[in-house]
Structures are given as C-alpha cells and as structure tokens.
Amino acid sequence: MEPLIKFTNIKEKSVLPGFGITVGFTILYLSLMVLIPISMLFIKTSALTWPQFWEVISAPRVVASYRLSFGASLLGALINAVFGFLVAWVLVRYPFPGKKIIDVLVDLPFALPTAVAGIALTTTYASNGVLGRFLEPLGIKAVFSPLGVVIALTFIGLPFVVRTLQPVLQDLDPEIEEAAACLGANRFKTFFQVILPAVFPALMTGFALAFARALGEYGSVIFISGNMPMRTEITPLLMITKLEQYDYTGATAIAVVMLVVSFSLLLTINLLQWWSHEDQPN
Amino acid sequence: MSTPIITEKKWLRILLTSISLLFMSLFLLVPLGTIFYAALQKGLLLYVTSLIEPDALAAIRLTLLTATIAVPINLIFGVCAAWAIAKFNFIGKQLLITLIDLPFTVSPVISGLIFVLLFGAQGFLGPWLIQHNIKILFAVPGIVLATIFITFPYVARELIPLMQAQGNDQEEAALTLGANGWQTFFHITLPNIRWGLLYGVILLNARAMGEFGAVSVVSGHIRGLTNTIPLHVEILYNEYNFVAAFAMASILALLALFTLVAKTVVEWKL
Asked: CA angle B155-B162-A217, nearest 5°?
C-alpha cells in the first residue's frame, strides 16, 4: 500500500491513465445489465400492498416450498460440511494414487451444467439406476422424493466446502499439532481442540456458500425431485410455475423474499470471511 | 508439500481416504459415468444420429451464437472493471465489487424473471417493444441478455485479485519511460494477466454454454428456434428420449471436463 495517501476528490492520485473511462463504463454497464433489471423486482412488488404481499408469500404451497428449499439446502450443506471436510483433509494430508484427478474433479459441480447434473443424478439414483437399485430393496426412495432434492443439493454444494477448506488446512502450522502431542494430547483430542477450532471459520464460510448456492438452485433439482406441489416443489420451481400461469406479481413477490434471504446470507458470508482472516495466526 | 511428522495411524488414514473416495464416487464419479454410458448405450450410430438431427444442430448453433456474443462483451467489461478496481483507490470501491458479484448470489430463476419483468408483454418496456415490433423475450436477444447477466462477474473476479497482487510498479515505469496508456496496457498489463484472463474466459464460456435456469425462463422453449443445448436436453429427457438427451448432455459434460483440464493447466501457469 501507498505510504502517503492524498485524496483528490474521490480518487487517490495515480499516474496511471484510464480511471474515468473504465470506472464510468463499469458503472454504466453494471447499471444497464444488472442494477436496472434487478430493481424491476422491487418496482413490480411495490404495486402490492403489504397484506397482499404477505398473502402471496405465506400461502400454504409457498410455505411448503420454503420448508423444502431451506430444509434440503441445510441438510445438503451439513452433509458437505462433514464429507467436504473429509475430502479436503484427505487431499491435503494423505498421499494416494489418483489424487490429482480427484482434486481436479472436485470442481465438476461448478463446471457441469445444472441440467446435465440433474438428469445424470436422476438416472443414477432411479430405482433401475446404477446406485438406485441398491437403495430400492432397503426401502429408500431416492428419486421423486425430498431425499432426491438433498442429493442434488449436496452435489452442487461440494466444491464450496472443499475449496474453502483446502488452503486453510494447507497453511495450518504443523508445529501447533506437534506442541499438542508433546503436551500429551492424542490425535483425537488434537483434532477437536486444536485443528477444528483453527479451521472452523473457513468451515462455516464453506457451509454458508454451499447453503446459499443450494437455496437458489433450479436445474439439477427439478429432474430428480418430481415437482409435486406441497411435497417436492422447491421455491425456485414455484416461481417458474407462477410465471407459466402468468402470475408475474406472485412470482416476483416470492423472488423478493428469496433475494432478501440471499443478501442476508451474502452479508453473513462476508462477516465470516472477515472473521476467518482475523483469526488466522500470521 | 512437507508431510507432518505427526499423523494418524495407517488404518485410520486408509479408512478416511476410502470414505472420501466413496463419497466422491457416489456423488460425482458415478453420475458422470452415467452420462456417457446412457448416451452410448444403444450404440455409436444412434449417438451420432441424435447429435446431427436438425433440432439438435439448431440448439448447438444457438448455444455457440450465445457464447460468441456473451463472452467478448463480458470479457471487455471484466478487463475494464478490473483495471478501474485493481489499479486505483477510490471511494465506494468495495461497494462496486459487491455489486459486480450480485449475479452470483441471485437464483438463476430470478435472473430470468427480471428480464421477463423488463421485456415481457406485461413488463416495463413490453408495450413499447410490441409497438415497434421488437422481439426480445422468447427470442434470441432475451437468451443472450440472460446469459450475459449470469456470466457477468467471471472475468472481473479472476482479474481483480491478480492485478492487485501484481501492483502498479511496472505500468508506472512504462509510463515514466514515455509509453502511452494503450501501449502500457498491451505491452505490460496484458502479458502479465494473460493466464488469469484465459482462466476467466474459460469459466465464463462454460457457464454461458451451460446455463439452464435463467435461459429456461426467457427462452419460450421453441424447438429449433430458441432452444439452447441445456434446454434441448430437458425437452428430450421429458419426452423419454433418453439416448438423445444424454447424447446432447455428453457434449456439455465433455465441455465441463475440458474446462476442468484447462483450468488445471492455467492454474499451473499462474
């Protein structure tokens, strides 16, 4: 950073050219492509009175969709917090054949289009599918059920947890573990009292990112969920249903609720990230 | 990587590695394999026939067209935004970064919905567009706009941390030695950020070609006209035409695998 900070109006002095044009173009393009379109949600919703708005967003079918979306996203993020932690741990700490390939494939849910993921998961977990046929005799219905939604949301959330934890685990100083061992702690105790607290902020960040992504997810869920109203209908799908019935106001009101939740999560994630940077022993 | 002196017992290491590989297999590897297995199940001939069928070709063309428009536009924007944000300090910078990230936090369905509200018949500009006989929604422009929105942050997001880490010293030196702004950018900045830029473009392109939710809302699903590859996959799948659906899906899966390999190579270069 610059040792001397001199402000000229809003910008620090710099010899580099192009500030005006680049920042101007950025703001113009951002406004046209993102801010104006998003503001439409609020303009459209403002046509409703509060009681009308409340009626739309608290209808039983809508509430059932929140329950599924939140519940399944939470469960998916929890599964990822446990197994994503394990995957990150194994990738950072243990050598094994094919490790590089597994490491690369962790990002597959980022790269694979959601519709493709959706049909692939559905076919895999259907009662005649490669994995579904083993679940069927156990009485587990993985497709067209809330469990299917959890499977899809676990799939798309995995990279968030692994990729947030990996660098933190990598930077963990082995000396603190050695110190714990010297002081008589066994591995189990060292893990829960030394390692876990150190990576906890990163784990929470990964969890929150996976949860936020899962809440809005559409493509990978709709094939596997079966889309039964009140039972396996996620909130994004309900918005589409309302749009197809030309109920634009209804769809928009629900979108505003989702948007507010996403922003709150984004804020939480930023606070968590700040917390994890604060905590890092440098 | 140095192996820590203190580690777990061998049986525990093997157990933990096995559990993670099992988890990865159940959720990633088996579904990925299923795509190619289901596509080639009935033989190579049917696979190829499904891909060269006219509606499939139309979908492939539309996807390529969409990416051809969305990628350069967002590339220019991304470089511009990264230059402004990484090279200068100004008030409101953090807010600008947060706003650029907005499309990542919004559900794809909402990303489509906002364009329906803007351009739909009941929408804000709808009546004016109808009067002037301009079709944006349920036509190609709507698909392109939704795709641009969804892929908006990719390049800027890759470049900002990279350019911030590189600092301004080289550019300042070039300017002192008499280079003008463009010369500085093309001879100093661009070579420095080329791998990061490529990385951003690869991710941007993959997302542009694979976007489903947002495009689904604005496309209108007209076969052969407004169907991109992911939308065509959905239609074929819902018609129980599984081989054709997975054949189309396999193109996107190959693109995803290519993206992962390219990403790995670029990360190694960075």
From this structure: 40
**Quick check: B107 and A109 CB within 8 A?**
no
Instruction: Give percent above pLDDT 90 in chain A.
Output: 65
Of the residues A69, A119, A171, the best mutation for testing chain B's interface (the one with the most B CB atoms within 10 Å of its CB) is A119
pLDDT of residue B1: 44
Supply the CATH classification number for the domain B43-269: 1.10.3720.10
Which of B31, B83, B152 lies at the smallest CB-CB distance from A34? B152
Which domains, from first to last, does chain A contain? 1-46 (no CATH), 47-279 (1.10.3720.10)
pLDDT in tens, B202-244: 999 999 999 999 999 999 878 878 899 999 999 999 999 999 9
* Mean pLDDT of the B122-141 span: 88
Residue for token digits 């692994």?
A162
Predicted pLDDT at A263: 87
- Cα of A124 to nearest chain B Cα, Å: 6
Cα of A144 to nearest chain B Cα, Å: 14
Whether B62 and B139 have beta carbons less than 8 Å apart is answered as: no
**In whole angstroms, what is the distance from residue A19 CA to residue B90 CA?**
10
Is the pLDDT at B21 greater than 90? The verdict is yes
CA distance A51 to chain B (A): 22
**CB of A252 closer than 8 Å to CB of A45:** yes
Kindly report, residue by residue over A51-68, the tens digit of the pLDDT.
Answer: 999 999 999 999 999 999
By C-alpha distance, the chain A residue nearest B203 is A111
Judged by CB atoms closer than 8 Å, whether chains meet at A10 and B260 is answered as no
The end-to-end CA distance of chain A, in Å, is: 19
The ipTM estimated for the assembled molecules is 0.90
Residue ranges of domains in chain B: 7-40, 43-269
- Write the DSSP string, A17-70: S-HHHHHHHHHHHHIIIIIHHHHHHHHHHTTS-HHHHHHHHTSHHHHHHHHHHH
Instruction: Give the pLDDT mean for B34-46.
Output: 93
Within 8 A of A124 by CB-CB distance, chain B residues are 30-31, 34
Helix, strand or coil, per DSSP, at residue A12: strand
Chain A, window 53-72: residues with a beta carbon less than 8 angstroms from a chain B beta carbon: none
Sign of the alpha-carbon dihedral angle for B149, B150, B151, B157 = positive
Q: What is the pLDDT of residue B6?
A: 65
Contact A174 B4 (CB under 8 A): yes
Q: Are residues B107 and A25, on separate chains, in Cβ contact within 8 Å?
A: no
- Whether A255 has a pLDDT exceeding 60, the answer reads yes
